[in-house]
Amino acid sequence: MTTSPLVSFSDGNTIPQLGYGVWQVEDDVAEDVVGRAFKAGYRHIDTAKIYGNEAGVGRAIANSGLDHDDIFITTKLWNADQGYESTLAAFEESMERLGLETLDLYLIHWLQPKQDKYVDTWKALIELQKRGRVKSIGVSNFTVEGLERIVAETGVTPVINQVELHPFFNQSELRAYHAEKGIRTEAWSPLGQGGELLQNETIKAIADKHGATPAQVVIAWHLAIGNVVIPKSVTESRIVENYAALDVSLDAADVEAINALDNGGRIGADPAVSDFA
Ligand code: NAD
Asked: Of 54, 139, 163, 164, which is most buried with the most CB atoms under 10 A?
C-alpha cells in the first residue's frame, strides 16, 4: 500500500499530506469510519470541536492499536471559545474527548474579524505549544491581513492555514503568499463537497486518461500543487478510493488544465467578512 508523503512545517514537524476529514459525521459514525480510514492507510485525521465527533475520533484512535506517534490528529478551537483563558479551557476539553495527552495540530477555526479576539487566541495557542501540549499550531480561514497581524503581534508564524480550496476556487494568490512566508496550505472541501466539480468534463477526461476516478484526479491535483488535503467520505469504497489517489500521478499539462478551471466558485463563507455566532 502506498503511504502518504509527509510535508514539513516551519517548526520542524511533519504532517501526512493526505488526511481524512470528518465534518458532518455523527459521533458514533465517526468511530466506525475513522477506524476504516486507518485500515485504508490514512494516518491523519481532521476534526474540530464544532463537528461534535472528537469523542468518536478518540474511540477510533484507542481501538486502532496504532501508537499516537504513528498518527497525526488535528482539532480546532471553535469561535465561541476565542480569547486567551477560554482557549486554554476549550483545549483541555477537546483533549479529554480525544483521549490524548498531546495534540499534533491545533487550529483557530475561523478568523472572526468582528469579534476580534484572534490575537489573544493565538497567544493561547503559543502558550499551549510552549507547555508541550500541542506540537504544531496553525489557523483556518485566515486572510492575509489576519496572518500579518498575528505574526506582527507575537512574532510566531502559523505552520498552516486551512482554507476552502478546490479547482473551482483555487486560491492561487493566497497560496503564493503562504509559500513566501513558509506557511503550508491545507484544502478544505477539496472535492467541492462532491458536487458539480466531479462531473466536470476536463476532470472526467483526465480521469479517463489515467484510468482513475474524478475524485482521485482532484485529490492528485491537490497533492501535485503541494496542498495538504483532507477529503471526507463515510462510504468505505470511497474512503479507499480517495486514499488510492496517491497512486495517480498527473503530468504538467493535466495540472495546468485543472488550474484553469477556477471560476471564483466559493462554496462556504468568506472569512474576511463572516463572523459566526
Ligand atoms: P469534500 O470536498 O471532502 O467532499 C465530501 C463529499 O464528496 C462527500 O460527502 C461525498 O458526497 C463526496 N465524495 C467523497 N468522496 C467521493 C468519491 N470518491 N466519489 C464521489 N463523491 C465523493 O467536503 P468537506 O467534507 O466539506 O471537506 C473535507 C474536510 O475539510 C471536512 O470533512 C473537514 O474536515 C474539513 N473542513 C474544514 C472547514 C473549515 O472551516 N476549516 C470547512 C469545511 C470542511
From this structure: 139
Distance, CA of 132 to CA of 263 (rounded, Å): 42
User: pLDDT for 24-72, tens place per residue?
Assistant: 999 999 999 999 999 999 999 999 999 999 999 999 999 999 999 999 9
Is residue 184 within 8 Å of residue 208, measured between CB atoms?
no
Q: How far is CA 21 from CA 54, 74, 115, in A?
A: 12, 10, 27
> How far away, in angstroms, is 22 Cα from ligand 1 center?
8
pTM for the complete prediction?
A: 0.98
Domain spanning 6-259: CATH 3.30.450.20: no
State whether the beta carbon of 193 lies less than 6 angstroms from ligand 1: yes
d(CA 7, CA 186) in angstroms, rounded, equals 11
How far, CA to CA in Å, does 272 sit from each of 97, 142, 183, 198, 275? 31, 8, 19, 28, 9
Annotated domain spans of the chain: 6-259
Query: Which residue in this structure is represented by grid cell 495557542?
Result: 125
Look up 84 and say whether it is catalytic. Answer: no
